[in-house]
Design goal:
450 residues, alpha/beta, Spore Coat Polysaccharide Biosynthesis Protein SpsA, Chain A, 2 domains, 3-stranded mixed β-sheet, 14 helices, 16% strand, transferase, EC 2.4.1.336, Beta-monoglucosyldiacylglycerol synthase
């Protein structure tokens, strides 16, 4: 079934199930002259507690799992093609190319990697800068044909020009240490994994409140989540920047999906559903730029949220009935639909509030109070403990993180409705809006260490 048709079917099914659940939860009863409306909200509470408990459990497991120790690197192995898709990246592309060209992945015959920048129709000085760099550095420049749109299309073009058996992907704002490729390639050696994702960090984390919040996400939630997935056998995912994969497996699963808004999540799902594993290589770090402006961050998160829903629509049948273990299936469903479940649950709760205007006596049927209180308390305790471990015992940092996270959660009031609107429109019309993240902050990267 084609992705668009699958999205339509999944969208219609989810809407019907949710509407049916809402209608089923409402029961009128007449007691003489008194009309009573019983509203069952226990199912919403159960969904929210389940999503929260799984998330807290995974973050806590990741925080308590010891990070890998840095080990000595091995000599360069298979030839690696490093592909950098770029569109209007004049502010960052030169530093990225110089950082990648400085990697220490050589043998006695010279470098065992190539750098390829795919210029996706840039209209600024990106092409001019790349041409100048190519005169002094071993960088290959590929330009997409007219009409090509999006990162996935640029990457697929790059694959056709690449020489390596291993493919690395870095964004146009990436900064890496000289031993980056050595550590990434070593993480695949001797394992059954077909891909690896490095640890992502932010080199302008201290620029303003928004960048600090994103740094909180990366350090205190994304990092332990990826670590937990590796420990528990969940869905370790590619994150778009600083990844390495086997070319033959990439071609087997069909390359990058040109229609995907979040091509990294889409590719991760197809790797896992095809039976391949992805490793989290925490000892290799890729530094990138946090989004410093609220408008740009909102656009990015709308694309992320809509992209996750599209992936759910595209792959839900395979996730439900494919050959993956139970925990990985649960992880996939929670990751792709967790935010949607929370949002729809809150919206449904607001809808229930409207029934008070009917004039009937409204009684809410809830889960036992002790169950919700204890479960919520355990979820909160687990998250706080995980944060404390990741902060290495610095208790005084928890309060600022909680305040920043609380403020940041308000952005979902804007992001989620817009993302849902775009997803529904795209599923019906087939029209997709793809907006790239704007790069270009005049802040030097920090030291390349953990």
């Amino acid at each position: 079934m084609r992705p668009r048709a699958t999205n339509r079917l999944v969208l219609a099914t989810l809407a019907a199930v949710w509407l049916g659940a809402v209608m089923h939860s409402l029961h009128y009863r007449d007691y003489s002259w008194l009309q009573v409306l019983f509203v069952d909200i226990a199912w919403i509470q159960a969904l929210l507690l389940a999503v929260g408990a799984l998330g807290a459990f995974m973050v806590l497991v990741g925080a308590l799992s010891p990070p890998p120790r840095r080990t000595g690197t091995q000599p360069a192995g298979p030839f690696v093609s490093v592909i950098v898709p770029a569109k209007n990246e004049e502010a960052v592309i030169e530093a990225t190319v110089r950082s990648l060209c400085a990697m220490d992945y050589h043998d006695t015959g010279g470098p065992r990697y190539e750098i390829m920048v795919v210029d996706d129709g840039s209209t600024d000085r990106t092409a001019e800068i790349l041409k100048s760099l190519s005169l002094a550095l071993p960088v290959k420049i590929v330009r997409t044909p007219p009409g090509s749109v999006g990162k996935a299309a640029a990457l697929n073009l790059g694959i056709t020009r690449a020489r390596g058996d291993l493919i690395a992907v870095c964004d146009a704002d990436a900064r890496v240490a000289p031993d980056f490729l050595l550590r990434m390639v070593a993480s695949l050696a001797g394992s059954e994994a077909a891909g690896a994702q490095s640890q992502r960090r932010l080199y302008n984390a201290g620029q303003n409140l928004l960048t600090r919040i994103q740094d909180d996400e990366y350090r205190l939630f994304y990092r332990p989540l990826q670590r937990a997935r590796q420990v528990l056998g969940g869905m370790v995912s590619f994150s778009g920047n600083g990844l390495l994969l086997r070319r033959d497996v990439l071609q087997e699963v069909g390359g990058w999906n040109d229609e995907a808004l979040t091509e990294d999540i889409d590719l991760s799902l197809r790797f896992h559903l095809a039976g391949y594993q992805i490793r989290y290589c925490e000892e290799a770090v890729v530094w990138e730029e946090a989004v410093p402006r609220l408008r740009d961050l909102i656009r990015q998160r709308i694309r992320w949220f809509e992209g996750a829903m599209r992936c759910l629509g595209d792959h839900l049948p395979a996730i439900l009935f494919g050959r993956v273990n139970f925990f990985k299936r649960l992880d996939m469903l929670s990751f792709l639909s967790g935010g949607l479940i929370v949002t729809l649950s809150l919206l449904t709760t607001y809808l229930y509030g409207v029934v008070d205007a009917t004039g009937a006596v409204v009684l809410y049927i809830q889960l036992p109070r002790k169950l919700t209180t204890w479960t919520s308390g355990l979820i909160t305790t687990g998250v706080l403990l995980a944060m404390l471990v990741e902060l290495r015992g610095r208790v005084w940092e928890i309060a600022p993180v909680l305040v920043r996270s609380g403020l940041f959660s308000l952005h979902r009031l804007v992001v989620v409705p817009l993302a849902i609107h775009r997803y529904v429109r795209s599923a019906i019309t087939g029209h997709t809006i793809w907006e790239k993240t704007t790069h270009g902050v005049p802040v030097p990267p920090r030291e390349h260490d953990l």
